[in-house]
Amino acid sequence: MSLVVLGINHTTADVAVREKLAVGEHQLPEALSRLTDINKVAEGAVLSTCNRTEVYAVVDPGVADPEDILADYLAASHGVARHDFDGHLYCYKDSAAASHLFSVTAGLDSMILGEPDIQRQVKQALEATQSAGAAGTILNRLFQDALVAGKRARTETGISRGAASVGAVAVERATQIFGDSLSGCTVLVLGAGKMSEITAKHLQAKGSPAVIVANRTHEKAVQLAEQFGGTAKRFEELPQALLAADIVVCSTAAPHPVVTRPLIKEAMRARHNRELFLIDIAVPRDVEPAVGDLDNVYLYNIDDLNHLVAGARQARAGEVSQARAIIDEAVADYLRWWHSLEVAPVIVAVREKLTDLRAVELARLRSRMGDVSDKDWRSIEAAFEALTNKIAHPATVAIKQSVQSGGDPGALDTIRKTFGIETEASTPSSGAMPSALEGNAASASEPSSGAIPPALGGHGAIDNDTPATIVKPLWEAGT
Amino acid sequence: MMHMQESATLALAALGYLVASVCYGAFVMLRHPGLARVARYAALIGVIGHTLSIGIHCAVTHRTPFTTPEEALGASAWAIALIYLVLDFVIKPQPTALGAVAQPIAFFCLFAARVFGTSHLPEQGLSKSDVILNSTVISLHVIALLFAFGLLALAFGCAVLYITQHRMLKLKRSGGLFGKLPSLASIDRLGFGLVSFAFPLLTIGLVSGVIRAVHGMPGGWAVDPKILLSMAMWVVYGIYLALHVLAHWRGVRANYLLIGGLVIAVATYFVPTVVHRFG
């Protein structure tokens, strides 16, 4: 089988494009169901955050253009045309795909280097995939290993030390508008999601401003409001809530903007033009961009906030190489495990071959020997078994070592030939990772050669009419 | 001897303002507490030196220190520096970003007064106009306007800071000055407070000027460009206060009004006049 990831992120597309492909939490089960309904997809997972939407799929290695299938899936499931996003996609296969998820989980691929939220989001993606029954052995292990590696990278290196988060940046901006303490301010939290909760926590730590929570599900609003000692409002009461608010944190799952220019214009008139700070961390966006043009209204969407802390990436660049080493090591471990799935049938085939040979030779011997006592025959059988085991053992060890680092990758082929089992053993990732296990972990982090020729060749891999539709992998470009 | 003392104290004042300008500016950028302390003491030395200089000047000439346009400019520098120093000691946290605007204004006013000024010491006794300027009404007129101008110059500084901060927030900038300027709310409050103090002084200054004009000036003074511009300035600040208090008008437009007000104030200083004493 072959592992493929097709995605779009903050480096390849701005929020206006990303929001078209965003998958809300409540949409995930249906999205996963549609993904695994595709004939050639054996396992599937979707990771959708503010900064990225990525589709992971385990497909048959015989599938010629898995990226094309996944791009069609994205277009169909979001009701958008391919040309709307084709030029913003990237695609990785096999070892490069695994390495990509590990990097993403560790926050190495985040706009804010080492940011912690992505770890939680990957975990949520795994849970959703498991709940939907879309994950099999390969994706389950991939996501779990990625989570372990991400945690290691954060604890063993300084990539997340002092990392500015969206919440921290939002607080910084709020203090530039309202002063060092937000004690006299009111924060309106629109949408009771995790991100709005985190951002509101950051704001509340800066002088305990009053908190109002408005959500479509009123019970959730009440729960979150209780957490902050605030008040809950029904979503329909938004115009009134805006009159009291100084800071609005928007993170609903609404597919269209819920905070419109006419709404804010009217609110600003009623609030006597008092400054209003809108933090829109939702994808798709909750606030119409034109709202930011209004006087005394300061609108920051997720891209704006992310760009503000991009400088932190430079400051911690030295930690990246250490984190990358951890990721490479984890990727190599994962690939070894995956390859062990490939060699297991070979080991079984070797043992079966020897067992068959033993049975044939024992039968022949029995026919020639005539009367032999049961006790003697058992001794002969035991001797044959010991002999075949002694033959099988070094072969098994050699097969296992062939997928270990420093092992001889050619041993597998030699053994297959020796035992005449070239065509007998099933190969779960046949041809999928020919180079992944060669050399060290660093080589495993490189995109598999030939996996994404369009990126290198400039041809449209997804749509031949669209040149260079798949971007070059980040690490290949030296970024 | 007195002339030398006056020059020495004036040089000390200029040096104090210059050092304060540099240190306040550096503090805003670097946030080193030592720079703010040095800036404050330099500003204090500047004001003390300037006060002594003005005192010596008055003692020698036996006249008010704003008889000529240059003297008025120098006195304005002193008023700006003095008012800022009071704010620096009274307001918490220190309005250091405003200091980075106010101290350079004070320095350049003093520098211009010195460069463009003529002899500070009279060659002969008091002229008729000097006697007029020493009257109580005119003293009130000049002193009120002097401090009003000082306050309005600082309000102008607040408006500049507000608009800079506003633009940085709108353009979503980071680094540079961002994070080093005070919050929009605090600058807006300070600007409004300064105009609230300046406006009554401006009113007193203009009313006392009108009283003096009615009783001692030839007809037609009401259409003198300087007086008309003074009235326009009063109207602009009056509108600012009225809109701020009654219509809760605030934000970038209100601060542009403060900048416009000071532009008119500066124009008032330079505009040709027929009936006014100087300028």
SS summary, helix count of chain B: 9
In helices, the fraction of residues of chain A equals: 40-55%
Tell me the strand order in the biggest sheet of chain A.
Answer: 7-6-5-8-9-10
Low-confidence stretches of chain A: 424-479
Shape assignment of chain B: flat
How are the elements arranged and paired?
The complex is a heterodimer of chains A (479) and B (279).
Chain A: E1 2-9, H1 15-18, H2 28-37, E2 41-48, E3 52-59, H3 66-78, E4 90-93, H4 94-106, H5 117-131, H6 137-156, H7 166-178, E5 186-190, H8 194-204, E6 210-215, H9 218-228, E7 231-234, H10 238-244, E8 247-250, H11 261-270, E9 276-280, E10 297-301, H12 302-308, H13 311-315, H14 317-369, H15 374-402, H16 411-419, H17 441-444, H18 453-457
Chain B: H1 2-30, H2 33-61, H3 69-90, H4 96-116, H5 128-133, H6 136-170, H7 184-216, H8 225-246, H9 252-270
Helix pairs in contact in B: 1-2, 1-4, 2-3, 3-4, 3-6, 4-6, 6-7, 6-9, 7-8, 8-9
Describe, in plain words, how this protein is organized in 3D.
The complex is a heterodimer of chains A (479) and B (279). With 479 residues, chain A is an alpha/beta fold. Chain A has helices spanning 15-18, 28-37, 66-78, 94-106, 117-131, 137-156, 166-178, 194-204, 218-228, 238-244, 261-270, 302-308, 311-315, 317-369, 374-402, 411-419, 441-444, 453-457, and strands at 2-9, 41-48, 52-59, 90-93, 186-190, 210-215, 231-234, 247-250, 276-280, 297-301. In chain A, α9 links the parallel β6 (210-215) and β7 (231-234). The radius of gyration of chain A is 28 Å and the shape is elongated. Chain B is 77% helix and 0% strand. Chain B contains nine helices and no strands. Chain B has helices spanning 2-30, 33-61, 69-90, 96-116, 128-133, 136-170, 184-216, 225-246, 252-270. In chain B, α2 (33-61) runs antiparallel to α3, α3 packs antiparallel against α4 (96-116) and α7 runs antiparallel to α8. Chain B is flat, with a radius of gyration of 19 Å. Classes of the chains: A alpha/beta (479), B mainly alpha (279). Chains A and B meet through α7 and α12 of A and α6 and α7 of B.
